[in-house]
Description:
This protein is an alpha+beta fold. It is built from 19 helices and 34 strands.
Amino acid sequence: MTALDEIKIGGLGASRKRVEDQRFIRGKGNYTxxxxxxxxxxxxxxxxxxxxxxxxxxxxSRAWQIPGVHLVLTGEMMATRNLAWMPTLSYDTQAVLxxxxxxxxxxxxxxVIADDPYIAKDACEAIDVEYEPLPPIVNPEQALADGAPVIxxxxxxxxxxxIYNWEVGDAAGTERAFAEADTISRLRxxxxxxxxxPIECCGSIADFNRATxxxxxxxxxxxxxxxRAAVALVAELPEHMIRIISPDIGGxxxxxxxxxxxxxxxxxxxxxxxxxxxxxxxxxxNLISTGFARDIYLDGELALxxxxxxxxxxxxxDSDHGAFFSDAxxxxxxxxxxxxxxxxxxxxxxxxxxxxxxxxxxxxxVAYRCSFRVTEAMFFQERMIQAAAQDxxxxxxxxxxxxxxxxDQFPFRTPFGFLTDSGQYxxxxxxxxxxxxxxxxxxxxxxxxxxxxxxxxxxxxMTEPLGAGNSREYDILGIKMFxxxxxxVHMTGKAILRTGAKTQGQGHxxxxxxxxxxxxxxxxxxxxxxxxDTDTAPFGMGTYASRSTPVAGAAVAMVSRKIRAKARKLAAxxxxxxxxxVEWELGRFYVRSAPDRGVTIQECAMAAYSNxxxxxxxxxxxxxxxxxxxxxxxFAVYIVTVEVDPETGVWDVLNMVAVxxxxxxxxxxxxxxxxxxxxxxxxxxxxxxxITFDAEGNCxxxxxxxxxxxxxxxxxxxxxxxxxxxxxxxxPIGAKGIGECAAVGGPxxxxxxxxxxxxDTGVRNIDMPLLPDRVWEAITKRHxxxxxxxxxxxx
Length: 795
Ligand code: CDP
């Protein structure tokens, strides 16, 4: 016997087909809305039509009279149970149902629980709410203006709309860098509000059983254990009597991390009625009230030497958080990991000041397919880099090459204090430039220009911190960020693996089994993976911020190694040699001096239940909790070429090249799928997605007629490159996260390409989305086009 062929057993590097797709493509997925429980009632939410108003009265009497209505909940009723407000994941409070004021359009005002959702919806319309309108505030500039109404007048001591002022970096060093600069490049940008808009909306089914006192909640959550902790704390229920089950999820992208009022109301309703209560958000509810991201303004400056060296970076950001500060992010950082900006560049000094404001918009700041604000960080970074190269009159690629961190500088301390782990940035850039035919394109561009055609090329180079913890620095409300895996190998060598992560389409059921196959030689098809049930899965922080592979994936490797260590003892017993004389090759232990004498991992599994040595605990199962020593730092180069039509402002993508180095790829096919999905979201953001608010605070973009998702028809083709592989030195299998890189780094590549095409107009910026009318206006009027008024720093 010899070692197994790793690819054949579906180990690392196998492009194994996704096992979960067997049920998805047959229509056999089991989503929250598919679940029907006996006696189940349905909940609908009445939402505020106004962005800012005092509630004068709520009259529910007509709603109660509608046949089939079981319960009408208002803020006043919630308050009697101390549930009108709930804590957020960022140490703020959020109204569950409004009592004093409504603070954004779409805010939850009342709920009806009825026999079916239609009765519940009709009854919502029968609730009479009298509002006294207040002036709405829709951006930080208005929020900070003298005399602006204080949105959060419910909070003692809150006498303005400022939530926080936060800063990071080296103020004195940065000032020195700017004093020494030959040139200072400045750019003001707005990263507009966007929405993860998963196809499946949020929802929950709460099922409180009075006989057992057990509360079971089926829900669309990316972080079931965090929700269990939140329910225990908010509803003051004993944690062991709460079971959160997250069934199949139809896309999360960060939208399904926070705790939403609908969850809380359905739980209370089930406790009061002692019947299961289902709440499924509709699409408009999803788009106007849950899970907003971005909405942040930048004043950015780079201190430059005329030879192209960046000496320092200064950024001031104003973040529009909406009415409640409910960002789901590591508690230590007020503005997520925005300070991961410029991590791939060798810049001696940097400083960021950040200010958060309340506005009359739904709470924002979810980590929409990103590691807590890194999307904004990388977008600002790459737009600033392009503008700086232009200001110096330097070639875009050459400017990056001068400043990128070189291979021998790792581990590298970034300008804002992170330690990046590994990378080959220059090599990735070379691969990308070669693939896109950089020099040839520049010639074509010049020729086209002579004939009045506008061609452009945009580059985005970025590294992203993926895999929070470590637990020393990363926690959410004091709960440390680590993750877990639990592996049970049955006597026949088949296994069940459970982790604290929760897949939402990323393919964990496929890839985690591949890690087990790699570590133990058990074929991946013999390993079933389960996630999302707090009664069976080990405690974990869930899936967001591409933390699954860096943390839960590492835990899978570590628990497999624990199993292997015990299997080695069993092998020694079966082979009648000492443990030191036993060697391992994939799937098999053998005697060092007699390689033909061996036992398979399956034979060891059988022995664990039928023939263990004296004194050994029976069974072959274990749990690992993994606290990562550092984040993983994948690197990517995205290069886009476009043609802009000067008559209409329409721009078409000619070519898009993506070079992603995410270390060891567990499943190359899944990795490519993740990259393509991310690039498509990036394209949507840059090209068409537009969710904004009018002066009255009405949400524009609250349906898929206005908030556009690119279909296969609009989506450009992508050329993906995988030849650069820099394993993470601290991850047990050398893997780095990949889920969000393309969504994070992609938008700047598209925007940079369009800006490059129109560079001769002198226009420095067009805010996303680069809609044809905005591009056309910029070209014809030769001025920057912003989506919203920028906010200046106080500094
Ligand atoms: O946390 P999330 O699952 O969203 O992101 P991720 O950890 O980057 O993983 C996304 C998917 O890509 C998972 O199925 C991973 O196992 C897979 N992956 C991979 O095959 N190889 C990598 N180096 C990274 C991720």
